[in-house]
Design a protein that fits this description.
Layout (H helix, E strand, L loop, with lengths): L2 E2 L10 E2 L3 E2 L3 E6 L5 E8 L2 E7 L5 E6 L20 E6 L5 E6 L5 E5 L5 E4 L7 E6 L5 E6 L3 E5 L5 E5 L8 E4 L5 E5 L4 E6 L4 E6 L4
């Protein structure tokens, strides 16, 4: 059969990519093997994370569920509901870091065991997106009200900018660690550089 989102039980399996109907795909990230991770929203902030396998061309459900309690530490990723935002996987292919739009934490998904783990609980506000730097040692976090940087070795968190008249939605990182933030509310793209240590408008005309 084909995976159609209106038929929730049917769509919780594995399907060929061109045989499914998606519902509100929002955030995505691709790894070095050309696999694609993306969120599919289905109710308010709730979303599932799916994986497109570049070798088999199948799409599988990786995290989040249509029914069930909110995810907590130690849960199997597909057995709990998730307010998933953006995501990024480490350079070893072992973990997927997931922004949680409503909670005061990030998620770390072990891609081997499929176990969910909370990070930074109480240290951040809800996050829209996360992306790592080129060597995978740092994680940039786009929070509701600030841009932060997490050292993945020490788990030390540093606030880079709290200029959030920006209201960003998603971010990407250049090889020189310039951070670009898209803001659909302000209709501009911001940049953050460590040299200037502030957000500036990069593309678009501020209102």
């Amino acid at each position: 059969g084909t995976g159609i989102c209106a038929d929730l039980e049917l769509w919780e399996g594995n399907f060929t990519a061109r045989a499914i109907n998606l519902q509100k795909p929002t955030y995505l990230w691709g790894d070095s093997n050309e696999n694609l991770y993306f969120t599919e929203s289905f109710f308010y902030n709730l979303a599932v994370i799916r994986l497109y396998n570049a070798t088999t061309h199948e799409v599988t459900q990786l995290a989040g569920a249509y029914v069930g309690n909110q995810c907590k530490d130690g849960d199997i990723a597909t057995n709990c509901s998730l307010a998933a935002g953006g995501m990024w996987g480490d350079t070893l292919g072992q973990s997927l870091f997931i922004a949680d739009q409503t909670g005061s934490y990030l998620w770390k998904l072990d891609l081997g065991s499929k176990i969910m783990q909370k990070l930074l609980e109480g240290e951040i506000t809800g996050a829209y997106d996360v992306k790592g730097n080129q060597n995978g040692s740092q994680l940039f976090i786009l929070e509701n009200d600030k841009l932060s940087l997490l050292n993945l070795s020490t788990l030390q968190l540093q606030v880079l900018s709290s200029q959030f008249a920006a209201w960003g939605n998603s971010l990407t990182i250049s090889p020189d660690n310039t951070v670009y933030i898209a803001s659909s509310m302000n209709n501009v793209i911001y940049s953050f550089t460590f040299a200037l240590n502030q957000l500036t408008v990069f593309v678009g005309k501020p209102g």
